[in-house]
């Protein structure tokens, strides 16, 4: 009898250590979905708890578990998850703690009533003193880091040349400075991108200058490959480098920030010394990249004016996001000199600094939902600052590449209201040496109805539509792309 009681006690303790049961999990998931989407949009048909594990990133003294589950969601009415300024795929991703390749069934052009969505979800729970498990935030999948070389592309150089480059690095004298190492790294990266682009062209593929490993641009570029056209994503420093590569015909395609593209076309800002990129043409706008002004939830910063005198990360020098961040501050009457300290670091490093209370705020232009911001919220609750209406009016009047946008309620955990901000479009630009037939084929690939770019790895893929291909587009559109977009819109009527 004693042994039986011990076994029952051990089983009970084991169950408690695994986190909440399926009923508690289902209740919480339904509540988060109700917050993220309008009532009557979908029904949770099935939920299967798939296990849990200890959260090794839990704060000291706090017992947390990451719970894994699968869900089936049935649409109760027609719904377009790709709308730029209404609850959509961002809400589902944050509510379920899923991510690229973790959600399937969302198609470009809108879903129909009866469609089934499937997702692999995660959530974090912490154990209270009374033994109850309470939800902290969806965990979200970690994105697979993209390879340094373009997927499927041949080796970029003969072994002998690679060996010679290795020798240059290995035999660098001890007094070699960090700046010298940076020059070597930049030249190697540039040479690699140029070689990949030329090889892609030789093999009748299309080199697409994307962005850093693990970034939204690169994941979108990788999701485009479907077998009909060979797209070769290139790992680059980001949008400004992409513009220069496309302008120099080192890549046939490039993903860029809309306001940065306009500066290149007009020869302003970081492109002033190079002159106007008058041959620059766009295939179309892809998805919105919204200004995120992020602070800790427990911060006393309540509005943009409170940033004066504070430590603010605005991104790294040379990044298009940094240029936009400065414009946003100036529109609110805040000069860089009025900040307590300007911090130069990329998004992920800025989020770590925010968590450690080493900075007070960060400003980033990025597609939503940003998995980095969402995952950071699981460790330390964060909050988004709204932009002031007068500043929004100034920004929109300042550049046709800017437009008002509200980050829908539920885009991020604990976000209970929509957050007004400004956005620019992520756009796809094309090299001047591309033929009309090539541009038309790529346009159909990007904007064709029925494809599920979310399931292929791009959370922003659901927002790509022929209906929004002109939104925020401030540079000339390629005539071949313009014709295809008109045809796709006509087919939908």
Describe the structure concisely.
The chain has 493 residues and is an alpha+beta fold. Helix content is 34%, strand content 22%.
Structural account:
Strands 6, 7, 8, 9, 10, 11, 12, 13, 14 and 15 form a ten-stranded mixed β-sheet that branches. Strands 1, 2, 3, 4 and 5 form a five-stranded antiparallel β-sheet that branches. The termini are far apart. This protein has helices at 2-17, 22-36, 89-96, 159-170, 178-202, 216-224, 239-247, 258-266, 320-331, 347-355, 371-379, 389-398, 436-447, 479-492; strands at residues 42-54, 64-75, 103-104, 116-127, 133-137, 206-211, 231-235, 253-257, 281-296, 311-313, 341-343, 361-367, 382-384, 403-407, 419-430. Helix 2 packs antiparallel against helix 3 (89-96), helix 10 packs parallel to helix 11 and helix 13 runs parallel beside helix 14 (479-492). The model is unreliable at 4-16 and 139-157 (pLDDT under 50). Helix 6 (216-224) links the parallel strand 6 (206-211) and strand 7 (231-235). The chain has 493 residues and is of the alpha+beta class. It is globular. It has three domains: 12-137, no CATH class; 159-283 and 432-492, Periplasmic binding protein-like II (D-Maltodextrin-Binding Protein, domain 2, 3-Layer(aba) Sandwich), CATH 3.40.190.10; 289-424, D-Maltodextrin-Binding Protein, domain 2 (3-Layer(aba) Sandwich). The protein contains 14 helices and 15 strands.
